[in-house]
Amino acid sequence: MRAAALAVLCAGITFAFEEQPGMVRIPAGEFTMGRSKLTADDQTKMRPQVLLDDRPEHRVGLEAYWMDAREVTQRQYAEFAKATARALPYHWRGGVVPAGAEEFPAYNVRWHDAEAYCAWAGKRLPTEAEWERAARGGKDGLDYPGGDQLDAKAARFNVQTGPGPVGKYAPNEFGLYDIAGSVSEWCADWFDRDYYAKSEPRNPKGPSEGAYKVIRGGAWPDGAKRLTVFFRNWVRPTQRTPNIGFRCVKSVLD
After folding, report:
1. Confidence of residue 45 (pLDDT cuts 50, 70, 90)
2. Is 37 helix (H, G, I), strand (E, B) or coil?
3. H or E element: which one contains 135?
């Protein structure tokens, strides 16, 4: 629904939710989180199961939330850095965004920097569960945001020339751009290889502590297998790389 406001009628009381510029509303609901198909190694039974961190499949219920339609750009990050005196990405020579890259996703940004940007913007980083529900576009059982196969023209991946401008590929069913490819995206959660076996069934927020933060979505140098909606990766929160960017979310009632 694309109106000036969204309204929900509950027990005779109407609540209005103002549209959030640049964001799309992900509706409340349940979805099946995790890998839904066996890998080739599982099928051959030539070695023990691999990639167990994205299993078992489990049902997760989430409240409604808003998510940035596009990844945070270098132009937007520059506004934040100027306002807060935050450290700049190291590839900004002379402290300025490279010419022509203003609408590229912000990268070479630590997890703590991404978290600070979201807070500055009145938002937050998505939980891993929020990210996956949004990436799936409301559909369970698929490998990629658009189906079981990844169209080479639907995402920026398997290239050696870095990320490209945001929003140049078709969005998924929820209206999210670049949810696969270009840059992987920081999530709020600490990583735990066995977390799916003990995840809370509603609004899971991940482990309370850890050494690594979850990243999702695959990036420009990755092959297609790393762009699936269920593939999990992890990075130290202090790491800055040209492969990782972020987008923000906001709870509907905030």
Report:
1. confident
2. coil
3. helix 128-136
Amino acid found at 64: A
Displacement of CA 154 from its chain's centroid (Å): 17
Choice among 47-61, 171-185, 190-204 with the minimum mean pLDDT: 47-61
Sign of CA dihedral 151, 159, 171, 38: positive
Nearest Cα to Cα of residue 144 among 250, 26, 37: 37
The mean pLDDT of 39-52, rounded to a whole number, is 73
> Tens digits of per-residue pLDDT, 172-197?
999 999 999 999 999 999 999 999 99
Length of the chain: 254
Q: Give φ, ψ of 102 to 5 degrees.
A: -60, -35
Q: What is the set of domains in the chain, with CATH numbers? A: 24-251 (3.90.1580.10)
Give the C-alpha separation, 127 to 188, whole Å: 5
Name the token pair of 155: 């995402």
Strand partners, 10: 13
DSSP annotation of 77 reads: H
Residue 36 class from Cβ within 10 Å (0-12 exposed, 13-18 middle, 19+ buried)?
middle
**pLDDT (tens digit per residue) in 206-233:** 999 999 999 999 999 999 999 999 999 9
* 236, 234, 121, 202 alpha-carbon torsion, rounded to 10°: -130
CB atoms near residue 165 (< 10 Å): 16
